[in-house]
Amino acid sequence: MAALLQYPGYEEEKLRRVAERSPCRDVQAGMLLSLIGEPDQYSYPSIFIYGHRASGKSHVVNVLLQELELPHATVSCVECISVALLFEQVLLSLFGCDAASLLPRSPSLSDFVRIYRQLCSQSTAKQTRYIVMEKAELLRDMDANLLPALLRLQELVEDNVTVILLSEIVWDKFRPTTGCFEPLLLHFPDYSKGELQQILSQDSHPSYSAELYSSYINILLGVFYSVCRDLRELRHLAALNFSKFCEPLEEGKVKESDTHKLWRNIEPHLKKAMQTVYLREVSSVQWEQLQQMEEKETGAVRGLSAHAHVELPYYSKFLLIAAYLASYNPARTDKRFFLKHHGKIKKTNFLKKHEKTSNHLLGPKPFPLDRLLAIFYSVVDSRVAPTASIFSQISSLVTLQLLTQVGHDEQLDSPKYKCAVSLDFIRAISRNVNFDIVKYLYDYL
Question: What is the tens place of the pLDDT at every residue in 73-109?
């Protein structure tokens, strides 16, 4: 990597440290170094760097500027909620604490340019100054003239300054309709699975070998890579679940070479952790406490389903129960389960001999709205009027992806739905409202 970052005007030792601190980003670091040029050269006025979250944009830029000891100001557009804070942060980082005091109480863009030029005349730049704007997409919500001015700030202040914009969205979403100075574009692609393996393996635990931690990361990526490629999220999951992975080693049950036994021990734990990817519903400490409680209490709600269904309204739980029954019970069995005076029905006629396959293996079947409401009014333990609140709760369940609407959106007169939750999830909800759902399932007769 160090060979790719060779550039005149910079010490090889500094470039080597940049390469070491930017794993799997040597191509992007070399491209950015080519755009920056030598320290005393004029750089391009503005550079736009874009890529998905946790793709190394801020890290590579900050490492490059810090290790090469280039004068720079890093500004977070999330923290700077006004242009006054943004201007103050730039002047404070580039010219010292006394520079920010020169700004008026409510500075305009012309005030910032005037004070910047005044400070430049007092201290001439020997190297290019850099202003790094993180989360630059928030600049679109500020003054209309701010983004075009930052793109050509070098021309306005007559100084060797380059503005670097970091964003998660493409430049086409930035470009003002009135036109502006076009920056140079640099894309940071997502990390591949092999690159994530290499980066995460560097966080090895001091008490265990690097080979063991590398095999653990390989197992972790095998479970989570299809649903999560965010480096920060994967690093958090790796640190959170490593102690569970090492439990058999600490108890002396297996050796480090028994990767298959270690995998069988950690697999169900990782599948539970997949339910909370990105959500942060609970803290890491609370997550561990939940897992310990589940291991002690047999028959408790597995995973985080107990936490997830607590937030549902009372009638939404019964609507979800009714939807599950409508999806997994044949329609001809509704009279048997939900009609109080259904008369005598012979069990031999009720259970057809050719129906040997479980409905749970076949998956949920679609059902009309009328059938859902009929089952709902039968299972709920109080009289409920068919108000707009009930229908809005059905829409909320669809939004939460607990129900799935089937068919075209324009079928307003007879919409159809399917239930999208598991049996464990619906049993947990049923226990919460004291409803024995197994009694009403056709497969459990």
Answer: 999 999 988 899 999 999 999 988 888 888 888 899 9
- Indicate the pairing of strand 161-167 with strand 46-50: parallel
Quote the CA–CA distance of 52 and 48 in Å, as a whole number: 14
Q: Count of alpha carbons within 13 Å of 84, Cβ hemisphere only?
A: 7
Strand partners, 387: none
How is residue 281 written in tokens? 């519903």
| Alpha carbon distance 75, 133 (integer Å) | 5
Question: CA 373, CA 387: separation in Å to the nearest integer?
Answer: 12
**What token pair was written down for 2?**
């160090």
Distance, in Å, from the CA atom of 60 to the CA atom of 46, rounded to the nearest integer, reads: 17
Q: Quick one: which of 400, 416, 331, 329 has its CA closest to 366?
A: 416
120-to-66, 156, 161, 171, 376 alpha-carbon distances in Å: 22, 12, 11, 30, 73
Question: How many angstroms separate the CA atoms of 279 and 230, rounded?
Answer: 13
**CA atoms within 13 Å, Cβ hemisphere of 409:** 2
d(CA 250, CA 107) in angstroms, rounded, equals 61
Flag whether the pTM goes above 0.70: no
Grouping H, G, I as helix, E, B as strand and the rest as coil, residue 74 is strand
99 CB-contact burial (10 Å; exposed 0-12 / middle 13-18 / buried 19+): buried
365 close to 420: Cβ distance less than 8 angstroms:
no
pLDDT at residue 59 is higher than 90:
yes
Residue 265: closest CA among 249, 285, 289, 277: 249
In sequence order, the 6+-apart residues with CB closer than 8 A to the CB of 398 are 404, 405, 417
* Angle at CA of residue 49, ends 47 and 54, nearest 5°: 155
Q: Please, what is the angle between helix 369-379 and helix 388-399, to 10°?
A: 110
Closest CA to 55 of 19, 91, 28, 89: 28
Q: Which residues contact 7 (CB under 8 A, 6 or more apart)?
A: 15, 33, 34, 38
Burial status of residue 52 (CB atoms within 10 A of its CB: 0-12, 13-18, 19 or more): middle
For residue 72, give both structure tokens.
């720079």
Residues β-bridged to residue 72: 130
Q: How far is CA 288 from the centre of its chain?
A: 21
Q: Distance (Å, rounded) from C-alpha 99 to C-alpha 116?
A: 9
Look at the chain and count its residues. 445
Q: Which helix (H) or strand (E) holds 147?
A: helix 146-151
**Of 206-215, 337-346, 400-409, where does the model show the most confidence?**
206-215
